Amino acid sequence: MVAIVLGLGGLVFLGRHYVASPRLGYPDAEWVGCSQRGSHSARRQPVRRIVFYTTEHPVLHSVRLWRDDPHVTGHYIVKKDGGVLQFISDSEMAYHAGNRAFNEDSIAVACEGYADAWKGEFKEDGLTEVQRTSLARLVQWLCARYGVVADRQHLMGKNQVPGVTTAEYPLSGPFCWGGAGNRYAPGAGWNWTELMERLGRKPKMTVLEVGEDTPVQSLPAKDAPVVSKLWAGQRVVAYDETESHVLVFVVGRSVEQPYLGSGEYHWDGWVSKAAVRASEGGIFTIPGDGTAALSVFSSLPGGNPVIAAHITRGKCFVVRAIQRQGEITWGKIDLMDPAPGGSGWINLGETTGLKSVDP
Prior knowledge:
Lysozyme-like, 2 domains, 5-stranded antiparallel sheet, disordered N terminus
């Protein structure tokens, strides 16, 4: 069914439904509309944050889902070709985050793609360049239009939203992340650092040593859900901060949730400043023209090596030790993990190469 737009303030024809075109929205967006009123309602709180995720479907399937499913919708989808689609007015609340409090004061922005695309399952590497550019322009407009602060406290993933207990998800609650259903989009490969830099918030890389065992949390708040854990003596790289917390790259597994097993689901997480101190060490990352992700092995490979984690392109980490094995140079790094003392080895001589980052 082809939607026919009759201009701002006109009507959009969707099958047997006529939906008023948006009163508020991104001027460069293509209006699609939503035929199911049950998926959204009038906004009662001012917009103060933007929640991001991935569609997990090709765009045509996502359009049908957002348009027609009474339980699913959001405000915007950014397509692979850079086009932006709008489904409901910014003045309306979408049911998207799995937490009504976060629905009420947020704009929902999804990007066509998959939360785990970096694993190679879908033969693609996250967002396209034109998609990244279009996303940044949309976010800049939304922040300027609604006064949203362009930092990681107010720009967040669905995988950071605290859970709530519902009839469908009775085991969930505020100690969980990913909303009621423990969703992990936009995933471990979503490059928050690059997006923030495009928005004018240049990351400041700092090596930190963990002074005491401490949780890594989804938000910079004392009672925020725990994403993973750091153990005394480990070193991590932070790239942003608040008065009380630092934002560190997550390399390793996230804590198991009631409706999601343990896995790699986050790009970064918040750590209390009281638990870390400044340290030294070379900061490394996978260059922009490298592979989507490198494997981290639990021990120096020999026989059948076990993959303990991955480092996705753009994440930064500290090499604690170097060891040569034949023609391969291995670097030892610390891993976040629900179990104590995690570490692993990464091939520093991969064909993609690694380069130092100037702090």
